[in-house]
Every structure is written in C-alpha cells, then in structure tokens.
C-alpha cells in the first residue's frame, strides 16, 4: 500500500467517524433548542390566561372558547391526571391520517368558582420537518466537505511527496554498470534535500568502491597472466628432463594442473570484467541450432568418458541477435556443467524451441542454497571436480548482457537450466 493511499484512508475513516457522531449530536442539540423555544411560547400562553378569563361573561363563553380554539383543551381539574411542566404527546390527525407529536403545557385555573385544567398544545410537525431539512443540509455539506478534503489532501500530498518519488524513481533506474548520472535536483523540502544529498553521497562511495574492485580484478588478472605462462613453460621444460624421477614427475604434473586451473580462473575473471564493462558487440546473427550441434561435437568426448549420451531434438532453426563467441561459451558452460554433475551412463537432454533453450541432466540435489547457484565462488567445489566456481556465474552474466533470462529448477531428480529468449529487449 502506498503512503498516500494509507494516509488518505486514515483521514477518510476519521472524517467518517466524526460525521457519524456529529449527526445525532446535531439532531439532539437542534431538537432541544426547538423544544425550548416551544416551551417558552407555551409559558407565555399560560401567562395570558387571566386576560382570556377576564373576557368571559358566562359558561357559554367558556364553551365557545373550547370549540373555537383547537389548540386549547379545557377540562375539569383532576389532580391525578394533572402533569406539571411541558411534555410531548401524540394525537391522531384526521386530516393527514397520521399520528402527530404535540408539545403540551397544563395549568390549573379557577373559572366562575370552579377549577379547570387548561392545556395549551403546539404541533411539532413543522419543527420535525425543519429539523429533517437542516439535517439533510448538514449531511450534504459534510459529505461535500469530506470529498473535498480527500481531493485536496491527495492533491497536496502528491505535490509534497513528488520530490521523494523522484528520488525513488532514480534509485529504481540506477545501474552501476550504466553509470547513471546522479540526481542533483534541488528539492523544495529540506528533509528531501537532505535525503537526496545522502543518497548521492552513498552512490558516490559505492561507485568508487565498485570501480576500484573492478579495476583491481582486471589488473590482477592481467598481471597474473605473464608469471603463470612463464612458470608453466618452465615446468614443461622441466618435464622434458630425462633425469627426473617418477615421484618428481608426478609433483611437477600436479603443479602444472594447479597452474592450468589458475590460468582458467584468470581468463574467467578477465571475461567477467569485460562483460561488466560492456566491451562486446551484440549485433551478430546467431543460428542457435547450429551452435548447439557444434558445441556437442566439440565436447562429446567428455560425455563419452563417462559413458553419457547427449540427446538433441534438432528442431527447426532458431535465430537470435547477440555475440557469437559469448553465446557459444554460454552453451559450452551449461553443457560442461551438465556432464560434470551427471552420473555415469546417464542421458543429457537438450531441448530448443522459439523461446527457450533447456539443458536437462540427472543428478543429486544441490547441497547448497539455489540463491548461490549463479554467484561467484559461493558454491561447494568437490575435490574431483574440474572448474573454479565461475562457470555458472559467467553463464548468468552472458545471458544478462544478451537480455536473456537464465533460470534453474530441480524436479524428479533432474536439473533444468532454461535460457529464455523472449526476455530479450
């Protein structure tokens, strides 16, 4: 969930709760004010009773008052039925055919020597309609206020968080290899300016360390080439000496084997450095099927030594754009890996279609995490295994610079390495 959505949602629920609580409170306050105003009007009416009585001349005038003024009810005084203070009561209205609420105030009055209960009543229908109208207006205004608040809040938040989104977008698109220019824009908010400065400082330090590391790797690989070649040539001359004993020859061969691995490591480190520095062109037309056939023919003796069989379904031709030498090495690395990690007498299956090139070989499950499979020097190297732990790392990097996707899966005692061409840019 985005921060803007989260904050807007919190404001929305807070506003909704306030509106829901304010409506009954507002109704209670307005209704109380109307009742208070009505009660004051009724009290004024009761205060005028002496004036009304003074104008009555006989019982007939009293009866006439009862019949003419429907808002006044005059009955014989009964202490049991007398109610002190204003109260609300419902009466049936024959005109509207509905019950209506009335506010009533009773008073005890002496007329012509007899006590009467004089009740003044006022209809609350108009008050109820007025309250409902006011409530509808209030609810409408509150809804408009809520919607307007949300829109204004989102608009302001987008402007406020725009610098942060710029920094985030820069970090998402940043690539050490592509030397993305630093984000130097001066932002309108101090905190984001500080964040921008710290991000740029961190990137500068990272780039410096990264380029120093690459430079060291390249220089070390270059510098090692000459002494390794000299030592190897000296050992070859030494092996030609007829006076060498069998034990000495064995030791020299072991040293030569280690030097060969060191030389291969050198070449692989140089290749990785060149890949990271993008020192290759990728505009060659490659016939994938023919390259696989050539690699199989070149490496078949490795499989024959382990009594393994390499099956290739030889489908229709598939062409891709890329670097021929690098792509050939990618196929070689994956096939050599399949041969080395398959048992004797097993079958290595290579499948090709328009979108995928898949290497399938039988073997035991990995004894390390799959996340480390394509990492440099992070896998367990068995004593009898040839290689230096860089083959799959180089393969993954070659696939990456071609904009292919190299994935691994282990299923039913089989290893699957899949190169997906459809991921290419």
Care to give the gist of this entry?
This protein has 425 residues and is an alpha+beta fold.
Give a written overview of the molecule.
It contains nine helices and eleven strands. With 425 residues, it is of the alpha+beta class. The chain has three domains: 3-146, no CATH class; 190-276, Helix Hairpins (Orthogonal Bundle); 284-423, Histidine kinase-like ATPase, C-terminal domain (Heat Shock Protein 90, 2-Layer Sandwich). It has a five-stranded mixed beta sheet with strand order 6-8-9-11-10. Strands 1-4-3-2 form a four-stranded antiparallel beta sheet. A hairpin with a 3-residue loop joins strand 8 (347-352) and strand 9. Helix 7 (288-305) packs parallel to helix 8 (324-340). The radius of gyration is 48 Å and the shape is rod-shaped. It holds the Pfam family HisKA. This is histidine kinase. It is an enzyme of class 2 (transferase).
Quickly list its features.
alpha+beta, Helix Hairpins, Heat Shock Protein 90, 3 domains, five-stranded mixed β-sheet, four-stranded antiparallel β-sheet, 9 helices, 18% strand, rod-shaped, HATPase_dom, phosphoprotein
């Amino acid at each position: 969930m985005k921060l803007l959505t989260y904050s807007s949602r919190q404001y929305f629920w807070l506003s909704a709760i306030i509106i829901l609580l304010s409506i009954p409170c507002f109704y209670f306050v307005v209704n109380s004010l109307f009742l208070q105003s009505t009660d004051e009007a009724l009290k004024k009416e009761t205060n005028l009773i002496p004036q009304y009585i003074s104008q009555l001349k006989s019982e007939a005038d009293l009866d006439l008052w009862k019949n003419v003024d429907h808002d006044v009810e005059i009955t014989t005084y009964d202490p049991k039925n007398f109610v002190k203070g204003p109260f609300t009561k419902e009466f049936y209205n024959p005109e509207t055919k509905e019950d209506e609420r009335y506010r009533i105030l009773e008073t005890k009055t002496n007329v012509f020597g007899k006590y009467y209960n004089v009740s003044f009543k006022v209809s609350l229908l108009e008050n109820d309609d007025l309250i409902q109208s006011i409530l509808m207006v209030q609810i409408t205004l509150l809804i408009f206020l809520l919607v307007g608040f949300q829109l204004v809040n989102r608009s302001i938040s987008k402007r406020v968080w725009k610098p942060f989104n710029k920094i985030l977008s820069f970090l998402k698109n940043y690539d050490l290899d592509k030397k993305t220019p630093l984000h130097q824009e001066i932002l309108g908010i101090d905190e984001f300016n500080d964040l921008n400065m710290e991000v740029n400082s961190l990137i500068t330090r990272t780039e410096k360390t990264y380029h120093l590391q690459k430079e060291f790797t390249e220089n070390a690989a270059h510098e090692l080439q000459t002494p390794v070649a000299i030592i190897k040539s000296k050992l070859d001359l030494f092996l030609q000496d007829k006076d060498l004993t069998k034990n000495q020859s064995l030791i020299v061969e072991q040293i030569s084997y280690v030097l060969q691995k060191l030389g291969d490591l050198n070449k692989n480190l140089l290749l990785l450095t060149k890949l990271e520095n993008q020192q290759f062109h990728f505009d060659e037309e490659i016939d994938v099927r023919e390259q696989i056939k050539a690699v199989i023919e070149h490496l078949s003796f490795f499989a024959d030594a382990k009594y393994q069989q390499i099956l290739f379904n030889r489908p229709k031709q598939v062409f891709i754009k890329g670097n021929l030498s690098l792509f050939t090495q990618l196929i070689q690395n994956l096939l050599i890996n399949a041969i080395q990690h398959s048992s004797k007498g097993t079958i290595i299956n290579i499948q090709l279609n328009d979108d995928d090139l898949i290497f399938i070989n039988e073997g035991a499950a990995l004894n390390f995490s799959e996340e480390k499979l394509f990492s440099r020097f992070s896998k367990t190297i068995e004593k009898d295994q040839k290689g230096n732990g860089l083959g799959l790392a180089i393969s993954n990097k070659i696939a990456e610079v071609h904009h292919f996707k190299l994935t691994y899966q282990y299923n039913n005692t089989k290893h699957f390495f899949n190169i997906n061409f459809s991921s290419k840019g």
